[in-house]
Design brief:
This protein is α+β, with helices and mostly antiparallel strands. Strand 5 and strand 6 form a beta hairpin. Helices cover about 15% and strands about 25% of the residues.
Length: about 200
């Protein structure tokens, strides 16, 4: 991913202190910035997200109350919630809404990585980031990108939540073709081939 301007606007806590579905939609086109061990920063355009709305959302980890695993979800907006799925894939989420409400947005696609497990593996993200603030000082943050028009956004049911009854059908997955973002921003979203769309 091409390194963008260092003066890019960092999305702060106020951006995330809103309903998860709104945050998920507006994260499309933003840049997920990662600082490497050598201090270099790469930026990866977000093109797929999923919203988890809170305890009433039966697909949400917080629907059965707070546990050691999901406690981060109940914390301040703008913190990272990172958990292990199927004992092998790290899932990167950012907490949203009011403190005490277990709501978050899952990052399913960014830069050249399609599928949440591929995002974390490709960018070297693991449990270390759980509970950290999505800010420059934590080494992982979001920067504002172009506003993605509604006509470019596809909304679908979330993936892998069939256990959630009627909540499995809610259109809370948001996707934009990275090529569409190219036409808005005028910059490439990834180096090389288009990201593969995968379930994990």
């Amino acid at each position: 991913m091409r390194d963008m301007s260092r003066s890019a606007y960092t999305l702060g806590q106020e951006f995330f202190a809103r309903p998860a579905d709104r945050v998920a939609r507006e994260l499309l086109g933003s840049r997920l910035a990662v600082r490497g061990a050598d201090g270099s920063v790469t930026r990866h355009v977000v093109f797929e997200t999923e919203a988890y709305l809170g305890a009433h959302d039966l697909a949400c980890h917080g629907s059965r109350g707070m546990t050691r695993r999901n406690a981060t979800m109940f914390g301040p907006a703008g913190n990272w919630y990172v958990y292990l799925c199927y004992g092998m894939h790290w899932m990167l989420n950012v907490v949203t809404g009011a403190e005490g409400v277990p709501a978050a947005v899952l990052i399913r696609g960014a830069g050249g990585f399609g599928g949440p497990g591929r995002v974390t593996k490709g960018l070297g993200i693991d449990r270390r980031f759980d509970g950290r603030q999505a800010a420059r000082r934590g080494g992982l943050w979001f920067e504002a990108g172009p506003a993605v028009p509604a006509r470019f956004v596809e909304r679908t049911p979330r993936i892998g939540v069939g256990y959630a009854g009627a909540w499995a059908d809610k259109p809370l997955r948001f996707v934009v073709d990275p090529g569409r973002i190219d036409t808005i921003s005028g910059t490439p979203t990834a180096v090389g081939s288009r990201p593969r769309r995968t379930r994990r």
